[in-house]
Amino acid sequence: MERGTVNGTISLDDANRKHESLLQLVFARFRRHRMAMIGVAVMTLITLYVIGGSFFITERSSNSTDFQNKWGAPSAEHPFGTDALGRDVLARTIYGGQVTLLISLLAMVVTAIVGTTLGLISGFYGGWIDSIVMRVSEALLTIPLLFLLLVITKFIGSQVPAVKVFGREFSGSVIVVIFVLGFTGWMGLARIVRAQVLSLREQEFVTAARALGARNLHIIFRHIMPNALAPVIVYTTLGISNVILLEAYIGFLGMGVQPPTASWGNMIQRATEKIDSAWWMWLYPGGLILLTVISINYIGDGLRDALDPYSKK
């Protein structure tokens, strides 16, 4: 039985682990979050599916057409069926999943770097710098994100040449989608980090660092940023699921990742041609999107509770 202090923030379990580091305490709290652990398990299986599957199925088979077997129902030869061009849906969910997860991860890396940097600078220096950053973020927040994504990918996506990474060729639209999603999602994170910095910059450890002659950049990145990372980690984790959904939106509308590169989003778009009869075309990529988003949200909830010192979970 756990017994906390007056405010209920410290349990006997935590008190008995005084010798453990903060990271170990956070990990222990995270492991006690049942749904988060289920999310980790499901995400591990999905990751093994999209990465491990490429060792058994070649990328060429995901783009190989067979017009004699188009719209083929699931069978022993094609467990997930075939699409309008006779391509194997199983292979395309594997390689399309790699693209979808790559886009979401890299886009959130861009968002995290831009949002955290601008939030730190805005909150620490204040004044006209803070005014400019906040006014720009407010202006961008007034623009519907989906509309902005559609416009940019429509006029720029087709102009970027294909690129090769680790032997794989990606259409230029993948690069465009990554940077568009990354540079249009920093506003919320910047505001969260700014709010954290506004409270942290008045703390005693910052005053002591200034008294010892520490430079501003040293104070920002050595003293303030580590103490503001908790909301960044949670925001970034939950943001990955939002990026997956946004990529699916624009892919479904035919303006995201362009063929021949597959993604879960543009696979669902092709399913609209026979949405009633060819159910396998939307069921498998749609189910993978659903499982991935739910799992990431559970992981984000677990990280939020684990990193929150006032949480009782």
Please describe what this structure looks like.
The relative contact order is 0.15. It is elongated and about 75 Å long. The chain is an all-alpha fold and 313 residues long. Helix 5 packs parallel to helix 8 and helix 12 (229-252) runs antiparallel to helix 14. It has a two-stranded antiparallel ribbon with strand order 1-2. The chain has a single domain, classed as MetI-like fold, CATH 1.10.3720.10. 67% of the residues lie in helices and 2% in strands. The two termini are 13 Å apart. Strand 1 and strand 2 (168-170) form a beta hairpin. It has helices at 12-15, 22-31, 34-52, 59-63, 89-125, 127-141, 145-156, 172-183, 186-200, 204-211, 216-227, 229-252, 264-271, 280-307; strands at residues 163-165, 168-170. Mean pLDDT is 82; it is low at 1-10.
Properties at a glance:
313 residues; mainly alpha; MetI-like fold; 14 helices; 2 strands
CATH superfamily: MetI-like
The unreliable regions are 1-10
Q: Report strand order across the widest sheet.
A: 1-2
Distance between the termini: 13 Å
Level-1 CATH class name:
Mainly Alpha
Overall average residue pLDDT: 82
CATH topology value: MetI-like fold
Shape: elongated
How many β-strands, per DSSP? 2
Task: Show the helix and strand layout.
Blueprint: H1 12-15, H2 22-31, H3 34-52, H4 59-63, H5 89-125, H6 127-141, H7 145-156, E1 163-165, E2 168-170, H8 172-183, H9 186-200, H10 204-211, H11 216-227, H12 229-252, H13 264-271, H14 280-307
Antiparallel strand pairs: 1-2
Task: Give a brief description.
The chain is built from 14 helices and two strands; from the N terminus they run αααααααββααααααα. With 313 residues, the chain is mainly alpha-helical.
